[in-house]
Task: structure prediction
Amino acid sequence: MKCKVTPSAKMQVMAMLKQETDKNLKLRVYVTEAHGDHAHYGIGLDYQRANDVINAATPGVEVLLERNNPFLDGIVVDYDGAQNSFTITNPSKGHHHHH
Result:
């Protein structure tokens, strides 16, 4: 599954992981609600599960994605410092975005 983490998101995720004592935690992006042609996303630190795919395309950041969830394939994770929040978009699904 494809997943891109922007440089600003990478810096924020690495800072979050550095504060954690449990080095088994990874970044998880998940679908909170799907309807029609788009989804709402959530983000947080979590442990790998049996049905996960690990995307390691961004050095230093491993992203956990639920296997076979089409709304997660092609996501872009960004971080807006002014808003102090992550934004997840999926250009392959009409560029809808949610935090």
Q: What stands out?
A: The beta strands are 3-5, 26-35, 38-46, 52-58, 61-66, 75-80, 85-89, 97-98. The chain has one domain: 3-98.
